[in-house]
Amino acid sequence: QVQLVETGGGLVQAGGSLELSCTVSGLSFSNYAMGWFRQAPGKEREFVAAIRYNAISTYYGDSVKGRFTISRDNAKNTAYLQMNNLKPGDTAVYYCAAGHWTGVSRDAYDYWGQGTQVTVSS
Prior knowledge:
Oligomer: single chain
Radius of gyration: 13 Å
Number of helices: 0
Structural class: mainly beta
């Protein structure tokens, strides 16, 4: 059974930082690309960041470039999203996802976590 578990969400003031973690079990983690998406109330799920299975390449949504960093530790079956200089507009439920292809579309990913809430106060 494949499981993706996100942790690290919470409430933070604008300008602050959070690091999200996504621990994966039930699949060969080092063979999968990892992505982070987010969904705010009343909005579509939005691409945030992605990283190739070997961490050689990373990709970011325009709204988070320069502020967020995606990384992974294949020995720990875990992907990370370091979020700096957070803004109220970053408030959303953040989801991690695993797939064979690195992409910005939800369709590129086969497995999803349950999400973790990030709230940024002004």
